């Protein structure tokens, strides 16, 4: 009886389970697709003009079902608002600047701001970019002047200020506010126009600039009104029209003020038509100026002002340009799609000037590549969709008038989920059939049979197949899936009509292996896939191959001979050879046609390095270029003398001789020293002294007192001595000055206070027999010891700047020499109040007509004028000047010389360098790159010297970094032995703004540079994270910095051994021990929405109630069965299930703090990867996988790179653009969505992502399963390991066996094939005898906007790097056979049990 009851209960249990499964299937059919999530900006920041010291607010507010997190970027870098006491994030997302900071040298708040809104597990959107401008200090470019005007005439009072100060400008008449009307107007420049003047307009006028608490008044100008005499006066323009640029919607005032008698009449013409000034939008005010309200694009054109009276007529024209901000004609729309499909986001914009469009995905810029393309100027096409392409895409349009954005969401559906009946999507024709049909309930076709490549060419393959064995229908259509071997992105091609059994795949790459599979589908849906077919396209072999044994050697200082052999694969008769050559680093390549196998090139530069390559030519065209070879011409004697030879008399018995090396390009070898010849008077015999190395000065001692000596210098190389300079003379002193005691006090001290500065002038001590080395100026409020400045002994004045207005300063002056400082003199001064008008320019020479220090003649010389600094290179600036004390022809006939001094323009740097010359031009060399210098010049004649001239400024050009990154350290990440953190400091000699770093790492410190793994890092980062390294393995790390000019040297290799295994059960590379088989019923799905269980479904509710009612009985029966019939087999299955579950979720972690995923894809599992983004000025840790495409790194110079590309592919003119496209992702990776180093806005930054640790499900003691945070939108268990979302830091590798996991060592015994298309450096080789190889990752460096094969690795520091293309067949990672067999058997048993239940 008990047994019958048990059987009854079991039957009831199976029945309820069957009903529950059927209901669940019915519910799943109704859950067609996830809904699009509303996510947009309610308010976006706008451009604002802020006032220094006042608060400013940038508004921003975003809307979504889930509360978005708002952050702010300034100039492309995230702001750290948590530690900023001046910037605050308001509750609605707006940014508050409590007090705007702005000064001449510190402008931290001015710039471009962008609001960034993020919803975890959903995506990120960026707002438009808003510009914050801070109004400058009140300053007048011109001030009003006193005028006399006839009654009835017009007058213009100048008050030109910066455009940002115009809104704060007003006028006063007799210190009373002046009301403006149509007779009295203010022009856009700030000037005041009074038309039809009458007696009441006479008085004192002044212009007032009032900004915040600062008030600045101009000089007062008196306007006198004269009675009209009736005498004719010449017609003239007081203010003609000027070019004007306005934004649509603004008002435009075009000035035109004319004067004369009889009074002129003003008319306006637009292009060639007369303007009706009585209209609603345009009228004439202020006696002739044209006002147009609310300008539009139609108002753009030429405006002409016509002024005429009875005696004369004048006209003046100016153009108005109206800019129109970007406007969306068509916005991108939300899209549903399946994996492997091709989609297009449409975006059409208009504006004046024509807007530029860029695309952003989840906050990061989309870089064009093989799979992301900009078509029809603005549209974004995504080919071969993968799961990680899901997210928010934004079309960002920008021109000079403004910018705006529009966003759309992309949802990738599962293959068994139908798209909505009216999807808001744009799909290319090849995918329409694949999307539109929903799966039915009947059987689907079996796999197509006998898939073969019936025709294989270099760029297309024709596939044919036979009908499936079980078609299950008549109208069978087919879809061909194909991809380059190793790529994760599949493309699709549909047959053109039902029943067609062939298709031709176009636009393939030559000599590339592709994987094809064919799937049939009927009205019930997609059927089984055919077995993958691997086919390689044919190589293009019509043109000659490279010429072997290319050699180059110098034959003289100006010639090099080049020899080579015939190509091994000439493909016909060789017509001739092209020999290409260029000087290293110059970039202008030349070539000669050669009919033999050798050639001597003459007329080369001496001791210069040249590169050579040869390309054979047959009837089909140019062939494959050889690798470059380098040779240097022989050295020779210098061809030019040293420059800037100057003499400085030190005392009565010594003269310091200084010079500069010969001009660049004339050394003709390494300068080994200099030969100095000198003689006394006009004697013919001379004395010779030599210097060694690069010494550029020599002290000549033992001379006679009061005697004239002449000097000249020549440079030397190993080949001999070059030409000498002209003789330069100097006379030693009659007697020496005393330096055994400190100088006396200066004989006088004068001060002249201004508003924020004090001009100090002095005369030297009366006792001029004591050496004076310089002067020390001390100053401060109430005490002279607050600040101290030291100046040169020849200087006679100094301006103390950056003082407080209306403050009392005490000033002291002391002369000093090597013995110490002398007695001081004191003076005091009170700076003027801020409201005082600006003083006119001070004539420094007239004000400081002071005698020279140690000379008896008190009359100083005039200082040089017109000093100009012309930048010639990164270390050379040419300084030129004029001397007013010379004749008009500026010819020097006496023994005067000039002293040029210079220093970097840094307030803290007061140390000058000087050089003497006898010419009016001087080449200053040995400067630091990318540095601002100031120059001044002084003239000396005998014992008389001038004051220093006005300064000139010049900034040297950038050049490549001279030193590597320093302080490179490597540490292991706590708790994660496979992850290391590498830190470094910028190069000590960056020579420009660092735009990026490249990290090289390898397990072999002696490996070639192209065999090291490369990871790029943006320039504002000083730390980086590298993950998934092999445990207990030594690694070597190097870092290379780059700026806009190229790559610097690499740092020394730093060794680091990863820790030993930490006992993790997860296999290397993140593989799980078993495949997932559980489904995510009742758990959050990918979008974060709970899985629908049939809301408002009455039958479902009934089933649930019945299930709950029988739950107790089921539990009792199940427990009884388990306790009675537990067997060893069931125990093994349970242990296997636990192992599988744990392995499936080892790397799933809580992600409540994760930032939106970036577009990094795991090689085999298509996983979304988060990327760290740091708002800190000092960068923090970030993760960047190895780049896969040429878009990740840009070369040194685009023009140089283009020439190299042309040279490397001399015969590629026969190829289409698609043929040159790279096989992006051939290792299962995809391009990272971020800007390259050179192309970014002033610098794009990324945010920091806190690390996450796995969370265990409470209450599970037997099988501990990792439980994701619901906010991440990750299912509890995934039905396929390829669809899991890995929350580890980003990586770009597959299951490794090599310790490096990225570049395998080439196997010399393996079979390989050379590419005749692209010569490249062998990165990977394929062993023919090895049955299985592990996948590896590769890196490539290329140019933005030009697709190239990811196979070659181009080292960015050199323009010409050999490239060879060899491919490695990717094989699936191997598992342990016993473990895999056990798990598959267990899964098979479960599936059979489920089938039995559902069919019962």
TrEMBL record:
Its main location: membrane. GO terms for cellular component: plasma membrane. SUPFAM superfamilies: Fibronectin type III, Immunoglobulin. InterPro entries: FN3_dom (IPR003961), FN3_sf (IPR036116), Ig-like_dom (IPR007110), Ig-like_dom_sf (IPR036179), Ig-like_fold (IPR013783), Ig_I-set (IPR013098), Ig_sub (IPR003599), Ig_sub2 (IPR003598). Residues 38-126, 138-224, 232-321, 326-411 form the Ig-like domain. Keywords: Cell adhesion, Cell membrane, Disulfide bond, Glycoprotein, Immunoglobulin domain, Membrane, Repeat, Signal, Transmembrane, Transmembrane helix. One of its GO terms (biological process) is cell-cell adhesion. Residues 1059-1092, 1132-1152, 1170-1220, 1261-1299 are annotated as: Disordered. It is a single-pass type I membrane protein. Coiled coil: none annotated. Pfam families: fn3, I-set, Ig_2, Ig_3, Neogenin_C. Residues 1-24 form the signal peptide. It comes from the Eukaryota. The chain crosses the membrane at residues 1100-1125. It is found in: Cell membrane. Residues 1187-1203 have a biased composition (Polar residues). Residues 447-540, 546-636, 641-735, 742-835, 863-959, 964-1061 form the Fibronectin type-III domain. Belongs to the immunoglobulin superfamily. DCC family. This is Neogenin. It comes from Erpetoichthys calabaricus. The lineage of its organism: Eukaryota, Metazoa, Chordata, Craniata, Vertebrata.
């Amino acid at each position: 009886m008990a047994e019958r009851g048990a059987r009854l209960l079991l039957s009831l249990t199976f029945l309820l389970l069957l009903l529950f499964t059927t209901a669940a299937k019915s519910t799943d059919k109704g859950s067609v697709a996830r809904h699009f999530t509303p996510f947009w900006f309610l308010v976006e920041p706008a451009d604002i003009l802020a006032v220094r010291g006042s608060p400013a607010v940038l508004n921003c507010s975003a809307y979504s079902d889930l509360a978005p997190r708002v952050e702010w970027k300034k100039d492309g870098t995230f702001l750290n608002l948590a530690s900023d006491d001046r910037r605050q994030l308001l509750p609605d997302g707006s940014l508050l600047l409590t007090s705007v900071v702005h000064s001449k040298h510190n402008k931290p708040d001015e710039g471009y701001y962008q609001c960034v809104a993020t919803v975890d597990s959903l995506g990120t959107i960026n707002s438009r970019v808003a510009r914050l401008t801070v109004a400058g200090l009140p300053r007048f470019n011109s001030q009003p002047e006193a005028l006399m005007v006839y009654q009835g005439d017009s007058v213009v009072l100048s008050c030109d200020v910066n455009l940002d100060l115009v809104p704060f400008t007003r006028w006063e008449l007799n210190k009373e506010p002046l009301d403006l009307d149509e007779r009295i107007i203010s022009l856009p420049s700030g000037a005041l126009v009074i038309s039809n003047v009458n007696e009441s307009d006479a008085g004192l006028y002044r212009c007032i600039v009032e900004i915040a608490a600062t008030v600045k008044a101009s000089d007062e100008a008196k306007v006198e009104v004269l009675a009209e005499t009736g005498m004719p006066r010449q017609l003239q323009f007081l203010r003609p029209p000027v070019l004007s640029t306005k934004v649509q919607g603004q008002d435009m005032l075009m000035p035109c003020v004319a004067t004369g008698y009889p009074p002129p009449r003003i008319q306006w013409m637009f292009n060639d038509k007369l303007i009706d000034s009585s209209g609603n939008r345009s009228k004439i005010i202020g006696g002739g100026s044209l006002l147009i309200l609310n300008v539009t694009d139609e108002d753009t054109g030429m405006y002409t002002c016509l002024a005429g009276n009875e005696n004369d007529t004048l006209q003046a024209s100016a153009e108005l340009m109206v800019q129109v901000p970007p406007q969306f004609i068509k916005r991108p729309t939300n899209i549903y799609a399946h994996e492997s499909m091709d989609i297009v986001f449409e975006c059409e914009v208009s504006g004046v000037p024509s807007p530029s469009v860029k695309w952003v995905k989840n906050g990061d810029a989309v870089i064009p590549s093989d799979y992301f393309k900009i078509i029809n100027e603005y549209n974004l096409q995504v080919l071969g969709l993968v799961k990680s392409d899901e997210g928010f895409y934004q079309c960002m349009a920008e021109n000079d008038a403004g910018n705006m954005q529009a966003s759309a969401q992309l949802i990738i559906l599962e293959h068994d989920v139908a798209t909505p009946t009216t999807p808001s999507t744009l799909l290319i024709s090849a995918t329409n059939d694949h999307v539109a049909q929903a799966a039915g309930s009947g059987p689907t076709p079996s796999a197509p049979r006998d898939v073969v490549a019936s025709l294989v060419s270099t760029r297309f393959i024709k596939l044919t197949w036979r009908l499936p064995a079980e078609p299950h229908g008549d109208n069978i259509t087919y879809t061909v899936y194909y991809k380059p071997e190793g790529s994760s992105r599949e493309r699709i091609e549909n047959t053109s009509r039902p029943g067609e059994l062939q298709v031709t795949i176009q636009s393939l790459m030559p000599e590339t292996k592709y994987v094809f599979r064919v799937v049939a589908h009927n009205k019930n849906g997609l059927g089984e896939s055919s077995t993958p077919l691997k086919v390689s396209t044919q190589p293009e072999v019509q043109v000659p191959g490279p010429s072997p044994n290319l050699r180059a050697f110098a034959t003289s200082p100006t010639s090099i001979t080049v020899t080579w052999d015939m190509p091994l694969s000439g493909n016909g008769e060789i017509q001739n050879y092209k020999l290409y050559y260029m000087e290293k680093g110059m970039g202008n390549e030349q070539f000669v046609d050669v009919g033999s196998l050798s050639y001597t090139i003459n007329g080369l530069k001496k001791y210069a390095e040249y590169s050579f390559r040869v390309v054979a030519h047959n009837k089909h065209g140019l062939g494959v270029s050889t690798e470059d070879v380098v040779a240097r011409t022989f050295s020779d004697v210098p061809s030019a003398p040293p420059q800037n030879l100057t003499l400085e008399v030190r005392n009565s018995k010594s003269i310091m001789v200084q010079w500069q090396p010969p001009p660049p390009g004339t050394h003709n070898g390494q300068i080994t020293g200099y030969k100095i010849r000198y003689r006394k008077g006009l004697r013919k015999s001379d004395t010779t002294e030599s210097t060694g190395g690069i010494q550029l000065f020599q002290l000549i001692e033992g001379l006679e007192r009061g005697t004239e000596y002449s000097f000249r210098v020549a440079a030397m190389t190993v080949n001999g001595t070059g030409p000498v300079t002209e003789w330069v003379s100097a006379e030693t002193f009659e007697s020496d000055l005393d330096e055994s005691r400190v100088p006396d006090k200066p004989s006088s001290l004068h001060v002249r206070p201004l508003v924020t500065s004090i001009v100090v002038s002095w005369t030297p001590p009366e006792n001029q027999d004591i050496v004076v080395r310089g002067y020390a100026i001390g100053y401060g409020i109430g005490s002279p010891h607050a600040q101290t400045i030291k100046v040169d002994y020849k200087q006679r004045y100094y301006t103390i700047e950056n003082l407080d207005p209306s403050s009392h300063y005490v000033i002291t002056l002391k002369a000093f020499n090597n013995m110490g400082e002398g007695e001081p003199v004191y003076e005091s001064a009170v700076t003027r109040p801020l409201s005082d008008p600006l003083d006119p320019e001070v004539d420094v020479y007239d004000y400081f007509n002071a005698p020279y220090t140690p000379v008896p003649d008190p009359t100083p010389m005039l200082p040089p004028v017109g000093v100009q600094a012309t930048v010639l290179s990164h270390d050379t600036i040419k300084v030129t000047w004029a001397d007013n004390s010379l004749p008009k022809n500026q010819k020097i006939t006496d023994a005067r010389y000039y002293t040029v001094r210079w220093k970097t323009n840094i307030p803290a740097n007061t140390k000058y360098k000087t050089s003497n010359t006898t010419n009016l031009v001087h080449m200053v060399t040995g400067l630091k790159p990318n540095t601002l210098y100031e120059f001044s010049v002084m003239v000396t004649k005998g014992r008389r010297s001038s004051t220093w001239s006005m300064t000139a400024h010049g900034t040297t050009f950038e050049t490549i970094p001279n030193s590597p990154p320093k302080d490179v350290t490597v540490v292991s990440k706590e708790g994660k032995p496979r992850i290391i953190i590498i830190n470094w400091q910028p190069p000590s000699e960056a020579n420009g703004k660092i735009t990026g770093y490249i990290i090289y790492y390898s397990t072999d410190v002696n490996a070639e540079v192209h065999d090291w793994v490369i990871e790029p890092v943006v320039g504002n980062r000083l730390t980086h994270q590298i993950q998934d390294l092999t445990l207990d393995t030594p690694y070597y790390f190097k870092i290379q910095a780059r700026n806009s000019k190229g790559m610097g040297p690499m740092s020394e290799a730093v060794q680091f051994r990863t820790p030993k295994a930490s006992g993790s059960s997860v296999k290397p590379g993140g593989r799980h021990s078993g495949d997932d088989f559980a489904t995510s019923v009742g758990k959050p799905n990918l979008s974060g929405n709970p899985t629908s269980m049939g809301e408002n479904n009455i039958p479902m509710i009934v089933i649930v109630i019945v299930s709950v009612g029988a739950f107790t009985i089921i539990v009792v029966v199940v427990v009884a069965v388990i306790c009675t019939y537990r067997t060893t087999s069931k125990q093994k299955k349970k242990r296997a299930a636990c192992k599988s579950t744990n392995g499936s979720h080892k790397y799933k972690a809580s992600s409540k703090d994760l930032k939106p995923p970036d577009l990094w894809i795991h090689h085999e599992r298509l996983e979304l990867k988060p990327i760290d983004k740091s708002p800190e000025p000092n960068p923090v840790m970030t993760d960047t996988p190895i780049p896969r495409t040429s878009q990740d790194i840009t070369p040194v110079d685009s023009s140089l790179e283009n020439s190299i590309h042309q040279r490397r592919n001399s015969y590629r003119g026969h190829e289409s653009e698609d043929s040159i496209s790279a096989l992006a992702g051939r290792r299962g990776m995809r391009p990272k969505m971020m800007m390259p180093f050179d192309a970014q806005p002033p610098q794009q930054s990324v945010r920091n992502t806190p690390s996450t640790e796995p969370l265990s499900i409470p209450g599970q003691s037997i099988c501990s399963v990792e439980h994701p945070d619901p906010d991440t939108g990750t299912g509890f268990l995934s039905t396929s390991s390829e669809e899991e979302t890995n929350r580890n830091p980003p990586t770009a590798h597959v299951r490794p066996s090599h310790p490096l996991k990225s570049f395998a060592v080439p196997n010399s015994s393996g079979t390989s094939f050379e590419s005749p298309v692209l010569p490249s450096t062998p990165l990977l080789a394929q062993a023919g005898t090895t049955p299985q190889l592990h996948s590896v990752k590769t890196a490539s460096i290329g140019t933005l906007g030009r697709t190239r094969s990811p196979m070659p690795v181009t080292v960015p520091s050199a323009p010409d790097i050999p490239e060879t293309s060899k491919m490695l067949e990717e094989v699936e990672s191997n598992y342990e056979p016993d473990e895999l067999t056990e798990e598959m058997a267990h899964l098979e048993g479960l599936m059979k049990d489920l089938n039995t239940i559902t069919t019962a």
